TrEMBL record:
Transmembrane feature ranges: 40-58
Compositionally biased intervals (Basic and acidic residues): 144-155
Pfam families: Polysacc_deac_2
GO biological process: carbohydrate metabolic process
Gene3D superfamilies the UniProt entry points to: Glycoside hydrolase/deacetylase
The protein's name: Divergent polysaccharide deacetylase family protein
Region (Disordered): 1-34, 135-160
Keyword presence, Transmembrane helix: yes
Superkingdom field: Bacteria
Key words, A-Z: Membrane, Transmembrane, Transmembrane helix
């Protein structure tokens, strides 16, 4: 028996049962040791890892990057402009289609796969407001359209894509843009992108309005002033091409018109009843358009026009309007003309209507187009209905 305050007697191995020693003897009750802290921490890590794996396995879409988006971009859509930020599509190699990965904001790269198709020539609509430098000839009159070295035309590149489907289709061209700033802004904002816009060569801020129109999805043509029968009493404006001028004088005036803006597929006459009836006067004009790869649209107001025959002889894509939709500037009459266009399109497969950017015309066209689409009419750009000698 131990006395209070005296140390416990030392236990010797010889005094313990056989097979025991001091280190293996039973521990007293209440003195059990806890497992080491490192063991507990390891167990917690295992549990956390199992929990995370279970959560990932049970998610419908685990922690993954977004699915790549495939966008078809034409081979010649690359704009030769100042260097673009990282991720901007670059020109493909001559070996064939190339896949370019482009980063988009707030998503882990790569998130977009862009495929270039060398068989296409239409400009990428994301940069449709920028001029293609390979299609520009710098001149004292400004940037003139021209064919690229590989023969690609502005008519090809600046055309608005369409479905290519069979069925009734209508091209609508609304002109006079660039004259009234408010009217131009309203027309660009209100008219559906399938409607082609014609800019007056004598308008203001044409480059700015061109960019706005192209960003809104419109195909563009440029109005060229041609001599009417009562010229100069009725004057189409600066740079008018006339029957009595020499070929070089008319080409000089034509260049002053062509340099006013860029990104258009061709020209449409502004007035010009006398000029379009004279084949000899037309030939230098059409030869220049054919060389530069532009189309010609006849507004259909002259029964004596020689533009179709002369344009085809010079390899110029050609279209002619079937109806002037706003000869009477009243909503009901405009809608009647548009209905006539629909009947023509159903009977012949296609039709072309032309008008001016009056408020009444713009509002009537915008509402009529929405209804025509529901009836199965496809509204197409003017390039879609042009007869192209190079695509026979």
């Amino acid at each position: 028996m131990e006395s209070n305050g005296s140390p416990a007697p030392r236990v010797r191995d010889i005094d313990l049962p056989l097979g025991m020693n001091v280190n293996t003897r039973p521990k007293q009750a209440g003195s059990r040791r806890l497992p080491p802290a490192s063991t507990v921490f390891s167990a917690l890590i295992v549990v956390a890892m199992l929990g995370t794996a279970t959560a990932i396995a049970t998610r419908e879409r685990p922690f993954r990057f977004p699915e790549p988006v495939v966008v078809s971009v034409p081979v010649d859509a690359t704009i030769q402009a100042p260097p673009e930020p990282a991720g901007t599509p670059t020109a493909p190699s001559a070996a064939g289609p190339s896949i370019i990965r482009a980063e988009t904001p707030n998503t882990p790269p790569p998130s977009v796969t862009i495929i270039r198709d060398p068989s296409q020539t239409v400009q990428d609509q994301r940069v449709a407001h920028l001029p293609d430098r390979s299609l520009i000839e710098e001149s004292p009159d400004g940037p003139l359209p021209k064919r690229a070295e590989n023969g690609r035309r502005p008519f090809d590149t600046y055309a608005r894509p369409w479905s290519g489907a069979r069925g009734a289709k209508i091209a609508l061209v609304i002109g006079g843009l660039g004259v009234s700033q408010t009217g131009t802004q309203d027309a660009i904002a209100k008219l559906p992108p399938e409607v082609t816009l014609a800019f007056a060569s004598g308008g203001n801020s044409l480059s700015r309005w061109m960019q706005a129109a192209r960003q809104a999805g419109h195909e563009l043509v440029l109005q060229v002033p041609l001599e009417p029968f009562d010229y100069p009493t009725v004057d189409p404006g600066r740079g008018t091409l006339t029957v009595d001028a020499t070929a070089s004088e008319n080409i000089a005036n034509l260049h002053s018109v062509l340099g006013r803006m860029t990104n258009y597929v061709g020209l449409v006459n502004y007035m010009g009843a006398r000029f379009v009836a004279d084949a000899d006067a037309l030939k230098p004009l059409m030869a220049e358009l054919g060389t530069r790869g532009l189309m010609y649209l006849d507004d259909g107001t002259s029964a004596r026009s020689e533009t179709e025959a002369v344009s085809q002889a010079h390899g110029v894509p050609f279209a002619a309007a079937d109806t002037q939709i706003d000869g009477t500037r009243e909503r009901g009459e405009i809608l009647k003309k548009l209905d006539e266009l629909e009947r023509t399109a159903r009977a012949q497969g296609q039709a072309v209507g032309i008008g001016s950017a009056f408020d009444t015309t713009v509002d009537a066209v915008a509402s009529w187009v929405a209804e025509a689409k529901k009836r199965g009419i496809e509204i197409v750009p003017i390039s879609a209905v042009a007869r192209d000698p190079e695509r026979r």
